[in-house]
Amino acid sequence: MTATHAPNAVFCTIVPPHVLDKLSRSEDSGVSGPARRTLEQDALQRTRRRLTTVIGATAVTGAAASDQPRRTVHDAKHQDTLPGRKVRAEGAKPSKDASVNRAYDALGATFETYLKAYGRHSIDDAGLPLVASVHYLQGYNNAFWNGQQMVFGDGDGEIFLDFTLPLDVIGHELTHGVTQYSANLDYFGQSGALNESVSDVFGSLIKQFTLGQSTEQADWLIGAGLLAPGVDGHALRSMKEPGTAYDDPRLGKDPQPGTMDGYVTTSRDNGGVHINSGIPNHAFYLLAAELGGNAWEQAGQIWYDTLTGGSLSPHAQFADFAAATAAAAKARYGEGEQHQAVLSSWSQVGVAPAAVPAAEVPRQQPGQPQEA
Description:
- The protein is α+β, with helices and mostly antiparallel strands.
- Helix content is 41%, strand content 8%.
- It contains ten helices and ten strands.
- The strands form three sheets. Strands 1-5-6-4-2-3 form a six-stranded mixed sheet, covered by helices on one side. A two-stranded antiparallel sheet has the order 7-8. The chain has a two-stranded antiparallel ribbon with strand order 9-10.
């Protein structure tokens, strides 16, 4: 049995610091001002998260695991006090505020995808209530998971639009919670890049599941629809073609590599977690493309088994994750097409699986709860 590790002090945002750094140096105060304020607020939230972990977090009341979500959306009213005023509870009629409704619907879509595709009951697999706050601060250019809830900014209108617009952004951030309650990957270096990549993978799968898109139909973009008109870009990241999501004078050029040949060694952004996540992202896309059909089924199931199967160390590196996915594929599907496709996808991005005992990943049957 794998040892249980205390949850890491992770504060996870959808917009990478290197993007906000670039924007903060713009000569246009309408661009630089919001970016600087967002960076300052993110630093404050990161510190709060660390202090919460040391002092002890306020308990989040769980619920009996059921097939129905328990959602609550709050309005922060452009302040930084969370969660803010409750404006929509589970089962309540839609609000006149589109941001509230989008957040509510996306919480539900995330819950439904995890339940129907993987048999998971909410973020913690034990019925955890889903809480979100919209309209956080003025012109806040980010969305984040703070260990207990989702928070959305409205964007500055110049570079970013309302952060409740892309469903995959919400799925991405809530998946940080799933990781927190399962593999608990460290948020630094390669383990941090895996943490980010897992959120991109399931953020994309949640969008695909909700829209009924096949692997071929999906755009494989993270944050499509988030960039404001006039920005030269499609999204924040591309899983299909890392490094091509944007190329704009104000944003800079998307720096994500798609293979280990472009791996970036840096001390910034917790060791480049938002940049190097492009490598495992691309490996997952290659796997899904090779297997075809609906990506949340075989490819997504392998990644879910790996994340929740109990074999990953919080310090897992790319090679460890590759080995674990190969073992998970073998455990569930045998040594056939799926297993070979996993090995091929990692080989194409330049990652060789580490040698691990096959018994570390228990065999799982569809519909059965994950074992630790």
